[in-house]
Every structure is written in C-alpha cells, then in structure tokens.
Amino acid sequence: MTQPFHLEPVPIRMIRCAKTFDGGVRVLDPVDLEIGGGETLVLLGPSGCGKTTLLRLIAGLEWPDAGGRVVFGGEDVTALPIERRNVGMVFQSYALFPNMTVAENVGYGLRVRGIERLERARRVGEMLEMTHIAPLADRRIDQLSGGQRQRVALARALVVRPRVLLLDEPLTALDAKLRDTLRLEIDRLLQDLGITAVYVTHDQAEAMALGDRIVVMSKGRIEQIGTPREIYRNPASPFVAGFVGTMNRLPAEGGGGLLRIGGATLPWSGPMGPVEVMVRPEDLTVEPEAGAEGYTLPARISAAVFLGDRTRLVAETSDGTELTIDTDPHRPFARGDQIRLRIDPSRILSP
Amino acid sequence: MRSRPIAFWLQLGFTLLVCAFLIVPVCLSIMAGITANYFVGIGGGVTLRWIGEVWRLYADTIFLSLRIALACLACTLVLGVPAAYVLARRPGRIARAIEELLVMPVAVPGLATALALIVAYGGFGDFRRSWLFILVGHVLFTLPFMVRSVLAVLCSIDLRMLEEGAASLGARFHQRFFGVVLPNCRSGILAGSLMVLTLSVGEFNLTWLLHTPLTKTLPVGLADSYASLRIEIGSAYTVVFFVIIIPCLVLLQRFGATGRPRTRKAKP
Q: Could you tell me the residue range of the domain that residue B228 belongs to?
C-alpha cells in the first residue's frame, strides 16, 4: 500500500443551524456543533431524525434557516454552494457516473479543477492503489460489485484532497461481512489521512467502531454528544439508552441507602422512592448456585440463544419484567430453568 | 418439436394477414415507381426513368425537407433538452402541467395548429413566405417528442444524485450539465433526434397549409405529384421518400429497443 498523503485537519463549527423545508416542516431544530480538526464525528439516529439534513448542511447541499452559520476553519462557508466548499462526499448510492470508467470517475474532480493530464493520472493512480482498486481502473461502473463501487466513491471523494470528508450511510447497501471489512478500512484510512470526517449512519455498531465522538439524534434534535464509551456507559436520555446497544429497564424502589429490585437489595446512593434503573445485558451475571441471596434476583429463562461468542438469555423476573442477559457460551441453559442474577451496583445506570 | 396448439397458428395467421395488409400497398407502390408502364405491369420492363423524372421536378422539395428536418432537429435540441432537464429537476404541479401542455400540438389536429399560425403570423409577409414559417410548425409539432424522450431517460437515472456527486467534486453548473447530465441521457437524445427527423420529413398536415408554391416539402410534393402527374412519377417519389425515411425508422427501432445502450453486468 502506498503511503497516504496527509490532509490539513480543518475544524468545523455549526452555529444555530436549523432547517425548515418548504411547507413549514421543521426537520432540524437549531444545532450548535463543534467538530475538531482531524476528528471523525458520527451522526447516529433512526431514519427521519435529521442526521442526513445536518450532513447536507455541512456539505452545502442544503442551506440553514436564517441565522444559521457553517464555518470551516476560519472561513464562513454558509453562503457557498457545495462545489465551492472543497468537501469530499460519499453518497449512500455512491452517485458514480455511469458514462465514465473507474479511473475517469476518480479523476473527475481533478479534471473540473483544470489539473493537467499527467498530474491527474499520477494522483488517480496513487488513489486507486490506496483504495485497492488499481486493477479495476478501466472498468465501467456497471461492471463493479457493490463493495468495489464503494471504494471508487471513496477514492473519488478523497483524490481532490478535500477539507472535510462527508459520508452518508456509505455501507448501508452492502452485506454484513463486506460492511465489517470496509468499516475497518475506512477507519484506518481516516486515521492515516488525518482528515476531518462526518459520518452518518443508523447502525450503532458502525458508529461505535468509527466515531471519535458520536452525536445521537432523534426527531431533529441532538440527544447526546460524546465518545462511544460515554454514550454507551452514560446515556443522557432514555432514548439514547434504548437506541445504542440493548438496555434492560427495571422498576425499583430507593430508600435508606438501599435499592430494592424485586427480591434483591443493593447499596444505593441515588434518589428515594420509585425509580427506573437501567442495566446492560453484559452487566447481569448468572450465579452458578443459589448462594448470595441478598444481592441476587431470581428469574426464569424464557429463551436461550447460542450466538457463538456468548449466549443471550431472555429471562422473566417474578413481577413479570423481561431481562436480556449476555452470558458464558459454555454453560448450557434451557427454557424454563430457574436462575439467580447478580447485579453489579457500580454498573447500574439511572437516567 | 412439440406440436403447437391451434391457437398459435391462428394468431400467427392473423398477424401475417395484418402485416400483409400493411406491406402489400408499400410493395405495390415501389413496384409502380420502377415499372416502365404501370398499366402493363412489371412484365413491361423495369426502369429508373421515373426516379430521374422526380429528381428533375422535385429535387428542391427533397432538399428543403432535409433542411427543415435538420433545422427542426437543431431547434428541438436547443429547446427540448434543457426543457426536459428543468422538468426532470422540478417536482410540483406547475412542472407537470407544462409537461402536459407540451403535448398539445400532438393532440390538436395539425390543420388547426397551422390555421392558428397563419391567423397569428400570416400578416408578416416575408416570414409567411419563407421556409422558416414551416419550420415553426414542425418545431411545435416535434418538440414534445424530444422532451418526452429525454425526460424518460432523465427520470430513469438518479439525476439529482449524479449532479450532487459532480457538484461535491467541485463541478460548476455548466461542467455538470455538459459532463454528466448530457452524456447520461445520450440514448434519450438520440432516440428523440431520430424521432424528430422522421416526423419532420414526413409531416404533411401542418405543412400542407403552411407551404407556399415556393416552399414545397417532400410530402407536399408527393401529394402534388399524385394529384397531377402520372402514377409512376408519384410512386417513384414514394420510393425516394422511403429511401430517406426507412433508415431513420430502423435506427429508431434499434435505439428504442435497447433504451439505454449498455447492458448491466454486475459481479456479486
């Protein structure tokens, strides 16, 4: 693999950017967002949450409502259309030109910039090497597989050495295995290039793997901004807790320094009275014996799914609450088994 | 070979019958154009004399028809392709209404359109007498075919996405339009062009009213020759007409059938 060139890390600032479409439909509430130079920021959320609109505002494919501003480095680009912002964009459907070969597609951005032929060929060659598609240079787009098209789209966006790389669900159209491979490659490429990147996805695993920080969005609003660890461990809202990873919710009662969940009691410093506590499937431990009574919660297995690296159990407590538990794949479990669950008090999340 | 059901033979027979009904007059007409004497029949000898006669009498109508057809093509390209582009890019009711209105000259009888043109512009003497008057009629009549044909292709590709892709790479509007939009609707432009040429060369209804004795086109000349000269000359004229129009129709059929010229062969 050729040594990649390094790109100037340009920070992005969005100030009070809102978007209302014709007809008065507001798809994005006013957003303030700072993206550090060289950072990979992932916009995560369900469809219709405004993440693509936010990306298109950064790209210059949409304009913010009056008062909103988009700043690249020291330059206010709010009034510039996309062709004058010098961004690289990878579209969900790739938007490759069917009338051109792979090399012509990759070279297009250089051609419209008036870069002369030899220099163009050199840079296209370098980029094709970097994205492992050099042997496909003379193919037509309709002769490529999905994964190959994705690489062409990436090469085409990067060859112009953009200030910012924008990716709109670039892996959604691919099958699971290819998605994993390409995700790793994109991650490495972004790191190597040091470019500021904004990546839109609805896939939380993709967001965790790629993002330096993740912006979780819902209904046109930002729910939380944080590192993948923060988002996962300290979700700021019930929406984030439910959207990122799997979360169990348990009705509980706080009081007297103790938290009572079903039959279990735990040390507790949280609020008094009835609360809803949240705990991740991997933070529930199945106790081998009916031993330490106090801290454990009795439950009955209603489903056990062997997933290779772990077994996922669904169990029901005595008051009918359903819990999801990830556990040791080597232990056999069967539907109907009575188990006791230990809850690590330090892993309990309360909203 | 498995024996086919009776319905197949009935259908085949009917199809051939319809074909014969349409093709036999064409063959007879061509024959009439190259026989020495129509009333004696093909036995009386074959000659190119009538075709020569047509050339002597009507060469100028043939050239005028070709000139109008090419000028008409140029006009429909310049007007129709950008119009199709705008219609494809604009959603909404106004764009759809314009799209429907564009087809009006096809729906309204040619004679009515021609009359309207004469009523409106007949007073401009020089214009009325020139071949440009016929050109206007032809452009009116053929424009919808160009727009429709280009629009169909533009709607089948993700135009907005392609343009956004090009813009994201720094392409200005004219670079996107000529470098990405036009090449990707080439098949529609080609099909539309052949359609316009064919229709313009063969157009009679409008032209019959719009022409002057000095601006006769091929179909008008053809009607003229059938009405006033020997049937052999009229038929020979038909042969000339076929020579011009059939290659157009064959090409049209080929591009119409493939739609987009290249087939898709994706690997998994």
A: 24-258
Helix axes A146-158, A117-130, angle to 10 degrees: 130
CB B232 within 8 A of CB B50: yes
Are A68 and A30 in contact by the 8 Å Cβ rule? The answer is yes
Q: What 8-state DSSP symbol labels residue A5?
A: P
Residue positions counted in chain A: 351
How is chain A split into domains, by residue range?
Answer: 12-243, 248-347
Name the 3-class secondary structure at A277. strand
Task: Enumerate the residues of chain A whose CB falls inside 8 A of the CB of residue B261.
Answer: none
Which residue of B lies nearest to A59 if distances are taken between CA atoms?
B168
B172:A82 CB<8 A: no
Which CATH number is associated with domain A248-347? Answer: 2.40.50.140
pLDDT digits (tens, 9 = 90+) for B47-69: 777 877 778 777 888 888 888 99
Looking at residue A311, its amino acid is: T
Check which CATH number belongs to the domain holding B250 and give it: 1.10.3720.10
ipTM topping 0.90: no
Residue B217 domain-assigned (yes or no): yes
Contact of B176 with B85, CB cutoff 8 Å? no
- Span B246-255, average pLDDT: 80
Tell me the residues of chain A between 238 and 297 that have a Cβ less than 8 Å away from chain B: none
**Within a domain: residue B179?**
yes
How confident is the model over B75-109, as pLDDT tens digits?
A: 999 999 999 999 988 878 888 888 888 888 888 88
| CA torsion angle B192 B198 B202 B208 (round to 10) | 30
Q: Do domains A12-243 and A248-347 have the same CATH topology?
A: no
Instruction: Kindly tell me if the per-residue pLDDT of B115 is higher than 70.
Output: yes
Angle at A166 between CA A152 and CA A140, to 5 degrees: 15
Start-to-end Cα distance in chain B: 37
- Residue in B162, B164, B267 closest to A61 by CB: B164
CA dihedral A85, A87, A93, A99 (to 10 degrees): 80
Q: Pairing between strand A248-255 and A87-90?
A: unpaired
Q: Within an 8 Å CB–CB cutoff, is residue A340 touching chain B?
A: no
In words, the CATH class of domain A12-243 is alpha beta
Residue B265 in domain? no
Q: Give residue A34's pLDDT.
A: 92
Q: What would the pLDDT profile of B123-164 be if each residue is shown by its tens digit?
A: 787 888 888 888 998 998 999 999 999 999 998 888 889 999
Report the number of distinct structural domains present in chain B: 1
In chain B, what residues touch A95 (CB-CB under 8 Å)? 158, 161-162, 164-165
User: Is residue B17 one of the residues assigned to a domain?
Assistant: no
Helices and strands, number each (H, E), in chain A: 8, 19
